[in-house]
Design goal:
- Helices cover about 60% and strands about 5% of the residues.
- The chain is α/β, with parallel strands linked by helices and about 550 residues long.
- It folds into 2 domains: about 375 residues, no CATH class; about 140 residues, Rossmann fold (3-Layer(aba) Sandwich).
- A 5-stranded mixed beta sheet has the order 4-3-5-7-6, with helices on both faces.
- The longest helix is centred in the N-terminal third of the chain and has 26 residues.
- The termini are far apart.
- The N terminus is likely disordered.
């Protein structure tokens, strides 16, 4: 019977995958040839290129961050087959995004129904953080997609397949181990509850009614323990990777600076509390997610709708409570863990959790709101609006189309620099230092000489005057988004907290930087709150191109 259902399902999945991929390509059409952005240029693309050119799983052109190599190996394979180019990279990542959405669709269809699955998949695809990550060469979306497939196997009681999917997820990104760890804890609680029921003399029928999972799970305790233990298997490939990394680099969790920034420097109670609040916002309200979560919350006060269920007039069913609790375990584990680790509180780290919130909320609307399709459409429109409209607070540029503004600004300024000062020494900060020195990133055609500082604060720019070799020109740019009228802008205590715990700083704008450096501002451009400027130092004639 299983075999008779498999072939049509696979064919149907292939059609859905093709539609998802075609839709993603159409929506990303103007983003496919963009050069690499931020962490793409800083780590993932150089690491994958090192693997392509040398066959080494440990990058040598950039310090190793100890991220598992699955995504880098996938990109290296794509470049080997189709050639090294941003277009190839973007299309390869869109294939991953389509596969991830297919996994989410099947998961939502399994725990709810096809209507909820379609709406949840569309909402996830258009949610700004997921949409922007869909074509970026980073690892979080891949880990999320593999987690969705693992959760599908989990709810279908295919535990060996679940262990395989989770193992692939942790080889995409190490933090994917959080999902099987959360489910392992959840299963342990359930097993303990069953033992308590048996010792208290609760009848099996009552126990099954209180925990509506599959009946065979409670009939064989040793089998349940074995299935639960399979959730620990993904730790094995992750441990093997770390052992290999330590053998090659002498470090387990990446280079010391990476470990300090993402783990050691985050262990302050106040920072953990603030990061926890930020993580809660990211799974409930960030980038216009709040219309969906608030609507679902208010819908809980409405009675369930009635309809035809199994040829009977019944209330529309909810997602099984134990499935919701399993999802909640994964969501809560990500919120708590990501509040403790991770130097930057990036929204993309929550990609395995946010779509689960979306599925639950959409299911709630379907169950309780008569015009739920209209509500879902408004949510989709809110998500698309968030692609273009920046929030009234600082945010990561990669969370909406602000990242495209950044890339375009740097393309224009660095093309200007390369044409006018091909032999000049350029003072700038990361990631522009990599963009100028590595033509493979897509910004310049030949490497330029770069002197790197940390950022464009007064202190860093003043320290540039002490550089022994000097510089001919400075490329300054906004290293973060600053809203025109930021929330809490007059609260100095909050600025001190951001500076101490989250690396906040104020970049000097181009005109002020030029005055401080004693140079002349000869090029400037702004886009949606971001800016870039080129400052010429005197004398600089020998660095110019003679015409």
């Amino acid at each position: 019977m299983a075999s008779s259902d498999t072939a049509p399902r696979r064919l149907h999945s292939a059609v859905i995958f093709a539609l998802l991929f075609a839709g993603l390509v159409a929506l990303h059409i103007f983003l496919l040839r963009l050069p690499y952005f931020w962490d793409e240029a800083g780590y993932y693309v150089p690491a994958a290129r090192d693997l392509l050119l040398t066959g080494s799983l440990i990058p040598h052109s950039t310090p190793s961050n100890a991220h598992p190599p699955l995504v880098m190996a996938y990109l290296a394979l794509a470049w080997k087959v189709a050639g090294y180019a941003p277009l190839v990279t973007r299309l390869a990542m869109l294939l991953v995004a389509a596969f991830s959405l297919l996994g989410l669709f099947r998961l939502a269809q399994r725990v709810a129904n096809t209507e909820v699955a379609v709406a949840s998949t569309l909402c996830t695809a258009l949610y700004p953080v997921f949409f922007m990550q869909s074509s970026l060469a980073q690892v979080d979306l891949t880990a999320a997609g593999l987690t969705f497939w693992a959760l599908l196997a989990y709810v279908e009681e295919r535990r060996e397949a679940m262990a395989l999917w989770f193992s692939l997820a942790v080889l995409a990104k190490e933090t994917a181990i959080l999902a099987p760890a959360a489910l392992f804890g959840f299963e342990c609680i359930r097993l303990a509850a069953k033992r308590r029921d048996r010792s208290a003399g609760v009848s099996p029928a009552v126990a099954r009614a209180s925990r509506p999972r599959s009946s065979e799970e409670g009939s064989n305790p040793s089998s349940s323990v074995r299935r639960t233990s399979l959730l620990l298997l993904p730790a094995i490939p992750l441990a093997l990777w770390y052992a290999y990394h330590r053998a090659r680099t002498a470090f387990i969790f990446g280079n010391p600076e990476f470990f300090r920034y993402n783990v050691q420097a985050t262990m302050h109670p106040l920072r953990i509390l603030l990061a926890f609040v930020m993580r809660l916002w990211q799974i409930t309200g960030y980038m216009n997610l709040y219309p969906l979560t608030l609507t679902a919350l208010f819908a809980m006060w409405l009675p369930p709708l009635r309809g035809r269920v199994a040829n009977r007039d019944e209330q529309r069913p909810r997602i099984a409570l134990d499935v919701q609790f399993a999802f909640l375990a994964v969501i809560a584990t990500y919120v708590l863990a990501m509040a403790v680790i991770g130097g930057a509180v990036l929204a993309r780290y929550m990609l395995p959790a946010v779509p689960l919130v979306i599925v639950i909320c959409v299911s709630t609307l379907w169950r309780r709101v008569r015009i739920w399709r209209g509500a879902a459409l408004l949510v989709l429109l809110a998500f698309v609006a968030a692609w273009f409209i920046n929030p009234p607070y600082g945010f990561s540029l990669e969370d909406n189309l602000a990242y495209r503004d950044y890339i375009v600004l740097h393309q224009h300024a660095e093309t200007f620099l390369e044409a006018r000062y091909p032999m000049g020494r350029v003072l700038t900060a990361w990631p522009a230092s990599g963009e100028l020195s590595q033509p493979s990133l897509g910004y310049v055609t030949r490497p330029m000489r770069v002197l790197q500082i940390e950022n464009f604060t007064i202190e860093e720019l003043m320290s540039a005057e002490e550089l022994p070799s000097g510089f001919d020109v400075a490329l300054v740019f906004s290293t973060k988004y600053e809203p025109p009228h930021p929330m809490l802008e007059n609260w100095r205590a909050w600025e001190r907290i951001k500076t101490e715990y989250f690396g906040y700083h104020r970049d000097l704008p181009p005109a002020a930087a030029a005055r401080l450096l004693g140079g002349k501002l000869i090029y400037t451009e702004t886009r949606q709150g971001q800016w870039v400027g080129v400052i010429e130092m005197q004398p600089v004639q020998e660095a110019r191109l003679s015409f």
